[in-house]
Amino acid sequence: MLIDANDLTPGHVLTSQVCIVGAGAAGIVAARHLAEQAIDVLLLEGGGFEPTPESVDLYRGSVSGAPLAADGPTDLTTNRLRYFGGSTNHWGGFCAPLGRNDFATRPWLGINGWPIDDEMLAPYYERATEIVGLPHTTFDPMSWPEMSTSPPLSLDHPDLVWSAGQVRPRRFGTEDRASIVDSARATLVLRASATRLDLAPGSDRIESVEFASPAGTRLRAVAPIVVLAMGGIENARLLLASNQVATKGIGNEYDQVGATSAIT
Length: 264
Ligand SMILES: Cc1cc2nc3c(=O)[nH]c(=O)nc-3n(C[C@H](O)[C@H](O)[C@H](O)COP(=O)(O)OP(=O)(O)OC[C@H]3O[C@@H](n4cnc5c(N)ncnc54)[C@H](O)[C@@H]3O)c2cc1C
Prior knowledge:
Order of helices and strands: EEEHEHEHHHEHHEEEEEH
Bound molecules: flavin-adenine dinucleotide
Number of helices: 8
């Protein structure tokens, strides 16, 4: 089902078993999967099916500290896309598994590193290759038929390891649109920008999401399970902005939400 937040009256409350905020790769895939399991899911997306100046404007922000890339943009609206499909509307589609090094603790950063490692993710890669529609279900090039006629160079140094990637820029915003909109279990609300998360009284459980239409109409989504899928920066922004009860922001008791390093 499809709803436009512009058509809802002020104070309208939507309820569901699960509420997902943000319809990029993460939000769309999660919503599709839950709906297929006969779970009612509400998917709040801040943009529409196409970018508009008013939607892009909400992503505005400047980059300070380390640049995004040596010659990269200094404005946060250049790279991130704020409409259905999120940044996969222009991503490159290069896919590769994370390696052990990606999770390694780096003592010079003064923080503890990731609470997960590569082995915890390993069982999920095959499913991810199918979701993106990659040509191969493994990232071991030796198992790819085409490698039998063109074997890779042999590496006989312990510090050198093979790493293989595959490319398919799946456009979730168009390729997966019908599976969400036509689903009896999924409700997509466009132009629905989450503005605040509210905790259940006396608890640290999120019980509802306040969202707003472009006209500023305040609306609410209520669900026992809320999934944040707005991308790395926006997830942190919303948690920090939700400081009415948890005064440092939700989940931010240790001042880590949105922090990239302890170096000042
Ligand atoms: C130019 C470019 C090239 C890239 N190439 C690659 C690549 O080759 N390989 C690779 O692995 N990755 C690549 N990436 C990164 C990849 O696109 C992102 O990691 C991926 O899109 C993240 O998905 P996501 O669902 O977490 O977030 P996003 O795609 O950012 O989606 C977030 C969604 O949430 C919505 N939203 C935001 N705020 C709110 C709010 N307050 N309320 C409601 N909705 C909200 C947005 O409109 C958006 O639809 C690239 C990125 C860019 C910009």
